Fold each of these.
Amino acid sequence: MSDSKIDTSHPIEDKSARASKIERERFWLVENAEAIAEANAYIEKHVCLLRNTGNSDGVGSLQV
């Protein structure tokens, strides 16, 4: 038998890194929730207007 040892630290480090990444992403979403909501509302309002004023080919056109 060989004296080689199995390194079990890598799976633990990988799991810890994934957990840390998930936590950072969650924190970022919480911190930026208001800006994300505002951006989504802007897109919803303006992009939907473009879609609704489009030609028969489905491409929107600006109406002033």
Note: Residues 17-48 form one domain.
Amino acid sequence: MPTEKTVEHADGTVERTTTTEGQRVIVERRGGGMGGVIALVIGLLLVAVVGYFLLNMSQNKQIESNAIAGAAESVGEAADNVGEAARSVTPAN
């Protein structure tokens, strides 16, 4: 007949020992759950940092797109100015 002994430690760890005559001793340990809480906090921090970088990268792409659009507009205006200047020149005879 098996004999069970349960010990609860101050840190919240529960240790259960089962002994059967002529058989092995089985020891089960269960933690207090603090490791899970720490892993959850680290996971949430990791998600927050990745989210920050993704949002920042998106804003940088928007700034780059605006700069390219502004440069293209300036080139278009310069071409218009050159066209106007070419039309205003009278041919020399």
Note: The beta strands are 3-8, 14-19, 25-30.
Amino acid sequence: MGFGGTTEKLQKVASMAEDVYAKLNELRDQIQAMRETVERVDRRTAENRALLEALAAEQDVDVDAVLTETAIEEAETEAVASAGEDATEPADETTRSAEESTSDTTTDSTASTADDDDSSGTGN
């Protein structure tokens, strides 16, 4: 007589399996649509590249040279950006202490320079 609980559990499992199967089919459809979109974009990109190369040939533009120059500029930009990110990272305690002592030294040397000017005897 303990089959009532088991039947209910099996029905829940079957219902969950149906939900998973429906979700799987939905994801499969989405992936197929995404593949079609990627293929369409690839075709358009190839068409645009052919048109640009034809226009470049008419204008005596070396496409390979332009692409190389662009790649170099992008690499330089990335290098500068990554160096900038390194510079904006928070300084550790050692770096802060060194910066503070440098700041104090600069202030002290400025003050002593002002004192030296006053002691020159010019009265200015």
Note: The two ends are 111 Å apart (CA to CA).
Amino acid sequence: MTKNRPTNKKTEKVKKEDLPSKNTILKILAGDFLTKNGSRQNWKIILFLVGLAFISITSSHWVDKKVVRINELQESVEDLKSQYTDKHRDLMRMQLETEVISKTEMYGLKIPDKQPYYIVEEVEEVQSIDE
């Protein structure tokens, strides 16, 4: 048993109008929306979107340049850290007593056998001129 449903012509027309046809796609591709009445609003939107695209591309290039600069600086910092480590190691080696002795022997300096002593000289107090 099949039921016959009454068809409503208004709903069928609305459904057909809602679907985009090949004709509307061709009109869009041909650019009719830019030349017909009311196209001024379309031009405003298109120019706005072009401006946004330009800003997006510009900021992307700017960020890329910054990233490259940051990478260069990081490599420079790593290089400077390694140079610092090398120089610090050399300085620590030069401060060793054996290194100091070997460097000063060519000038005739030696470590004394006796411990140094201090000469203390007492200074007399100077009387003030007012007295």
Note: The chain has a mean pLDDT of 83.
